[in-house]
Write a structure and sequence with these properties.
The chain contains 11 helices and no strands. By secondary structure, the protein is mainly alpha-helical.
Amino acid sequence: MKQYLKIVGVVLLLLAVYSVFQLLFSGLAIAIYLFRSVMSGAISIDMLENVEALMENPAVKESSNEALALGLFLSAAAMLLFIHFTKLFRLRWSLFRSIAFRPLLYSTLLVFTSMIALNIFVQWLPLENVLENEFDGLTHTFLGAFTISLLAPVLEEVMFRGAMQGYMTRKLGNPWQAIVIAALVFGVFHMNPVQIVYASLFGFVLGWIYYRTGSLMSVIVGHVLNNTIATLMMLSFGNVEESELMAQVMPQEAVLVSQIVMFVLFGGLSLMLASKLHRSMPAPPVPWHESDEVGQTEM
């Protein structure tokens, strides 16, 4: 019981601190951008009293996207430093050399194929994407696109796989419990119906790869690939779903058939790559630890 209370405490601590950082830095960035807009004459002080009218102002829309991107960047950077200095997970250069090329290739391909299969799967579910406009706005700023594509995946893997899943694996001695719990927390953390399902399933894939390879680098590369493709798709096609794009060039029945074929194909490839990755790695150590793991603190 004591172990589970410690785990709950660590999970809540990580989520609470990151939420505080997001509120603090995003609020500060928005305040700075609004102050600059008032000083430059782009908006008047009277407009600040009417939030709806304020958000319809093109200059304010652009500034709010830039402010949110800056807030996201600063909160991600601050959270990485928090995790490192509390020794929940130590950032070190060995992260970039703790896995051989072949398992890294298998793990990256596995992330790519499972990403396609899971993306098709969630399109079949009646789930709403409530943060689509925010994501669209962030990707159209350089700092937002950089943070979503690179910095956010690094933070999320350090936080959910390195700090959270690694801690639970060592404490519980049950890797599957740790993988599932970290994946579910990862999904719920996104607070967006469609992302909750996708991120939970995707987090399970990443969690298994991390456990099997013992290398955070293997999941960072895959996560960066996932987010970069999503960013490029948003920049290229906006909020249009892949199924809607396909429907423009083929009948609806053909779209469904092609989705089923692709789901089976990429799902099968994912299982094959998972098998190859499993066979290419030695048995995980007992008790489990990350490759080149140093400086972990018992809590």
